[in-house]
């Protein structure tokens, strides 16, 4: 497929370099210095004709400063950073770069960039197209980059990037339309009928259509049918959505007006490879708001497990917390207290992590619980938002009182009583027990939450964190790594868990890398983790910068460091290791 707007003409090495500089200097390109070096390195190497050397190992050494012992299987830092870089490039081209002539992408499955030219766009510097051939380019006599920079992987870039630009634009309108429709329905309905439509029926609804078999033979047909069934089975475990197999209708036989999406896809077999494409379509205007492709070798796990694995990946991508259906601005839903708006407000707050967003989401959930006291999901989210006042008190400038923790635990227990298999309710109970100094109860609830929905990235990540901090580092870090690999949100949250995992196994270099990949403004405790790592590495000047930030932005944390560390790290040896790093940074812990 060829995307509209892409021209098959080539471009010059100089024009690509100018585009790189434009991206790196843009305010809309929001990644840290390490990611900028990543992009600059892969673009430069490609321009110099060395794209075949762009492997995880070489990038880890050149950009991340890793040594010859780097193992990409054990340390996925390059893969994770490449994923972030791809998303940030998409963001740039949706905003500041929407009119740029040169499109730089890094297709999935590798690290070599592809350069495309938008037809009709004028070159930034026309003289660049007229310059003679330069050393290191693989162009023609006009100095244009062809094989090394343009034609390789062009079809792959077309399939994966250009549609994504329009899907992301469409995704931004989903919540506004859904919230407006919900509000209009509530205003127009009699009070008795409003109560029946304000609960789970107001949540996003996904129609799972039968996946199409695009390969001949009964095997592909059987797999497509099995894939569809597996996806449905895994999607229904997500309590934030409603899953159906046919167009939902109200009691009058009219098509439902609630937020409606269709999950469509196809399956094909190529030798031993099982390949599947999937897309999520908004029914209101037929806009594709998400799409991806997946493949696996059936020889490795066999057909049933391969089929189930791909179905799990698709379900996770579609319905995961902080995913495409749950992205909005907290202010956009303020004032409404239906189930969908409150779910959206919660995920928006967790992404923003500000006092204002916290109050908006909390107020919404409190009103929603009064209207829908039997809704396990809403009660669970209210528990979690109260718990945040306890565990994120330095970020939210709240008081971490025993009464706050007690209320959060009561709400979590209520949510579990309402629905003992609700993964979000069990997650809330896990966290409440953990911070109430009941590690056994926390891990028991966490195990139940993970068993209820292993494809929920937030459940897997939080359970992994609690396992790790309870001393079960190997088991917990595996879950955290898997969650990060599936883009678990909020952005930058679980990377601090990866930093702790590396720190506790003695790999302080990897620990610093992961810590800097986390969102250091999300929680002052993240800064404390980096402080301990830098102290252990002997980087006192950089540690002093983190310490100054904590003293300035979270002064209340300073006299409580030992207490906060003990709340999170259950084992004495882990506490000592962490605190020794802080003291090595120059801070005497009371």
From TrEMBL:
<dbReference type="InterPro" id="IPR011990">
    <property type="entry name" value="TPR-like_helical_dom_sf"/>
</dbReference>
<keyword id="KW-1133">Transmembrane helix</keyword>
<feature type="region of interest" description="Disordered">
    <location>
        <begin position="123"/>
        <end position="150"/>
    </location>
</feature>
<keyword id="KW-0472">Membrane</keyword>
<feature type="compositionally biased region" description="Basic and acidic residues">
    <location>
        <begin position="123"/>
        <end position="134"/>
    </location>
</feature>
<feature type="compositionally biased region" description="Polar residues">
    <location>
        <begin position="139"/>
        <end position="149"/>
    </location>
</feature>
<protein>
    <submittedName>
        <fullName>TolB-like protein</fullName>
    </submittedName>
</protein>
<keyword id="KW-0812">Transmembrane</keyword>
<feature type="transmembrane region" description="Helical">
    <location>
        <begin position="166"/>
        <end position="184"/>
    </location>
</feature>
